[in-house]
Design brief:
By secondary structure, the chain is an alpha/beta fold. About 35% of the residues lie in helices and about 25% in strands. Helix 1 packs across helix 9, helix 4 runs parallel beside helix 5 and helix 6 crosses helix 8. The structure holds nicotinamide-adenine-dinucleotide. Nicotinamide-adenine-dinucleotide binds next to helix 1.
Length: about 350
């Protein structure tokens, strides 16, 4: 293997261009080709980076020497394209959600095992310093007994956003609405920090947009470790407000707001125990990230994607496992599909 890994991108829309920027920012990576079924989309991105453009994924695979292919196409195409690329012997980085049904994900996991290539699934906020810090503290059991974990995603997407791609807000290709597309990031973090979800009850609605899928959802959760939790999410909260992830335990609490650690208090750092009624609020610990994706889907920073692609390069070089592999990426999709089932059946859903 050469020192520099050669990358191809499939899907040159909103997120495809973030992948191109992220690859270009990494010393061990080189973008060599891009593909999109819309020739102008492929050509535009190809010209920007001086690489070859294709309108057909198979043709790109046949003609190019590539080690890694990044799939940035509508979610309902991920299984078909990931399996095609893996069978060609290339490693895959696929965008979230890994796929929109569990049988499709299981097929991807099977082909990954069969071919022995690496499969990474984008969940870029796992690489945020705040998330990493809270995860390390969870591993150290610094929060004590985890009791409550919450996610709040009060985002805004206009009708024009949903109308900007025929696949958006459809069951067949988006696989859902605010949960499967936008909130999957926070739901992935919640279950990474709190542990697996065991059962849930939920409501969903479509109140502020013309689309097939939900634009508002609430769920109550019971985690495998006995802790409880909630998910509340919408793309109908104008103009888009702070995303919150909260982890509460009997020896400490943490709150992440828009990817930053807004609150952290651990019993182990207290000089004296807080009284019977607890401590008052502490100062915020904000840095300069604005959380702009709450209002504008294209206002993404490349930082998380670059870190995750670097993690994949490490996994390939060391023959290790990427932090978010196909198996890890299955969990948040299972939770989201459980929420849809509970909302539909008005029953509690127990996850496997
Ligand atoms: N990680 C994140 O923060 C993030 C943000 C946005 C989107 N996404 C994910 O990225 C994926 C794409 O979303 P987007 O917002 O970039 O969509 P988009 O509509 O802006 O871009 C999709 C591109 O794929 C092309 N395409 C469609 N079918 C194709 C095919 N069969 N072969 C090749 N190209 C094809 C389209 O022409 C379009 O250019 C989705 O899975 C979405 O969930 C992730």
């Amino acid at each position: 293997m050469t020192n520099t890994l050669r990358f191809g991108i499939v899907g040159c829309g909103v997120i495809g261009s973030i992948h191109a920027q992220a690859i270009a920012s990494l010393p061990g990576a080189q973008l060599v080709a891009v593909a999109d079924i819309i020739p102008e989309n492929a050509q535009k991105l190809a010209s920007k980076y001086g690489v070859r453009a294709y309108t057909n994924l198979q043709e790109m695979l046949d003609r190019e020497t590539l080690e890694v292919v990044n799939l940035c196409t509508p979610s309902g195409y991920h299984k078909e394209q990931t399996c095609l690329v893996m069978r060609s012997g290339r490693h895959v980085i696929v965008e979230k959600p890994v796929e929109i049904t569990l049988p499709a994900i299981d097929e991807m996991l099977r082909v990954q095992q069969e071919t022995g290539v690496k499969l990474a699934v984008i969940s870029q906020h796992r690489f945020d310093p705040a998330t990493q810090q809270v995860h390390e503290l969870v591993e150290e059991q610094a929060f004590g007994r985890l009791v409550l974990g919450n996610v709040l995603v009060p985002w805004w997407r206009s009708q024009a956003y949903y109308d900007s791609g025929a696949w958006r807000g459809t069951w067949a290709l988006d696989g859902g609405g605010v949960l499967m597309n936008q909130s999957i990031h926070s739901i992935d973090l919640l279950q990474w920090l709190m542990g697996p979800v065991k059962s849930l009850c939920a409501y969903t609605g479509r109140l502020a947009h013309r689309m097939e899928t939900e634009d508002v959802a609430v769920a109550v959760l019971r985690f495998a470790n006995g802790a409880l939790g909630t998910i509340a999410a919408t793309t109908g909260a104008y103009p888009g407000v702070t995303t919150r992830i909260e982890v509460f335990g009997d020896k400490g609490s943490a709150i992440i707001e828009n990817d930053n650690l807004a609150y952290l208090h651990l019993a182990r750092d207290d000089k004296e125990e807080v009284g019977a009624y607890g401590a008052g609020p502490k100062d915020s610990k904000k840095d300069d990230d604005t959380g702009a994706t709450a209002t504008d889907p294209a206002a993404l920073s490349i930082r998380g994607h670059a870190l995750q692609i670097a993690d994949m390069i490490r996994a390939i070089r060391e023959d290790g496992t990427p932090l978010v592999d196909g198996r890890a990426a299955r969990h948040p999709v299972e939770v989201i599909l459980g929420i849809y089932e509970s909302a539909r059946t008005h029953q509690e859903v127990v996850l496997s």
